[in-house]
Amino acid sequence: MSVYKLNVFTCRAVWKCKAFSSRNMHLLQDKAFVNGRWIAAASNNTFQVTNPADGCVIGVVPDMNTADVQQAIGAAKSAFDSWQNTTAKERGKILRKWFDLMEQNGDELAKIMTAESGKPITESKGEVVYGNSFIDLYAEEARRINGEIIQSPMPSKKILIERQPIGVAALITPWNFPHAMITRKAGAALAAGCTVVVKPAEDTPLTALALAKLAEEAGVPQGVFNVITCDRQNASDVGNLLCTSDDVAGVSFTGSTAVGKILYKQCAQGIKRLGLELGGNAPLVVFDSANLAVAVNGTMASKFRNCGQTCVSANRLLIQSKIYDTYVDELSKAIKGLKQGRGDEAGVTAGPLINKAQFDKVSALVKDALDKGAKAVVGGKPAPQLGDLFYEPTMLVNVTSDMRVYNEEVFGPIATVLKFETEEEGIKIANSTNSGLAGYFFSEDVNQIFRVARKMEVGMVGVNEGLISCAEAAFGGIKESGLGREGSHHGIEEYTYYKYVCVGNLN
Ligand code: ADP
């Protein structure tokens, strides 16, 4: 547990914690879920989970090490023997039950999520719907994981291609979408017939454990869905074991590019299947032809959702010169309309940052920009009157390429605005990064729409739209933003392999 978490534990916070741990919260767990049982770490070590809005401790969970994780991998490996041989219909039925329970318990899931991630309750409720939708989709998709019978070049041979589950999948997930980043992976894995070991982020393990509780209630068999928890100090050893264990067939990770690169190297040793959803640095381009209101609304949704802490968040706002002034005016008004505060307070649309490291990073990026000549049209400083992790929603103009905000993914409520002249220049700036997850642009010119969508070097493009994620679409990036796709029927690919069966000597 970090020193920070201890320091911010206050009396007021204790009172709030009691209110949070009401008797109606049956999904709140303080143990990990391995082989269908709720267990402590073998060492009995634990770590605290705090509410970023006030630092109050809202839960305590096992701080597991590699020995504990080995046990979870073993459980998943044994369970794979039988789970892979269930019918797709049976797996779909269990997933459907899990989905139904998630729906029935949506309010409680949202409360837990807001308490541990700080996001506004309306956003948590939205994430519950979004996260659940992956289980809904994959409950159906299980029955469509079909093979092929191919035209044989020889009459005596029959050529079949079957799809089989890869085995145990390790799922390492981040804190910004504590529910959806698990269901997006686990839904596809379980539908395919894989078993999973989930390692949620240390900031948000309670949502993961709540999902495990519902999996248990849904009748997911023992060892099929395991959740192990550990604090940051153990994350690298645990991650290394998940990437190198002979009993793990594949790893799926959502998180920072830096950690993704470590896992890529570790997975090379055993030639593991690997899915990576990494950092974004998304451009959002507003062309002169844009509908201003649509562009401003889209910017707000993409930039300020979850306090800017999403990998598809617009990181660089590139505005064409003729529309620039009016856009800056309108966006300023919209940003001033955000209501900052605790996620559980009514009407709040901007919560705190997740932790001290994130707060320090955002503060340093803004300071660097201001020192180098940027101007804060809105915000530009912390909001300590609300709590230690609040930073004012901010808009920076006069941003230049030597500033850190131009080059790095901010992951905070900071809109950085740059002006450009021609379409060509706008696209060049948009593509001038090693990242390639999402990109957005706003235009009412149909030729420009198809031209620019094709030229943007990203895995996902939002045209006149700031919110693009849904279970039915294929989510993923190019360049250093990752490997593979999640969601849609493509998400199943990560967890299956093709087996060619040749039946010969036929008469
Ligand atoms: P952030 O910096 O936003 O917390 P990370 O990429 O560090 O993003 O974290 C995403 C997930 O990766 C979390 O579950 C975290 O515990 C885990 N993690 C962090 N470092 C490592 C590592 N070296 N190996 C494996 N997993 C890690």
Topology overview:
Layout: H1 3-7, H2 11-20, E1 32-34, E2 37-39, E3 46-50, E4 57-62, H3 66-83, H4 88-104, H5 106-117, H6 121-141, E5 148-150, E6 158-165, E7 168-172, H7 180-192, E8 195-199, H8 205-218, E9 225-227, H9 232-244, E10 250-254, H10 257-268, E11 273-277, E12 282-286, H11 292-304, E13 314-320, H12 321-336, H13 356-371, E14 375-378, E15 394-397, H14 404-407, E16 414-420, H15 423-431, E17 435-436, E18 438-442, H16 446-455, E19 460-463, E20 478-479, E21 482-483, H17 490-493, E22 496-503
Parallel strand pairs: 7-8, 7-10, 8-9, 10-11, 12-13, 12-18, 13-16, 15-16, 18-19
Antiparallel strand pairs: 1-2, 3-4, 5-6, 6-22, 11-21, 14-15, 17-20
Helix pairs in contact: 3-9, 4-6, 4-7, 4-8, 5-6, 5-8, 6-7, 11-12
The structure holds adenosine-5'-diphosphate.
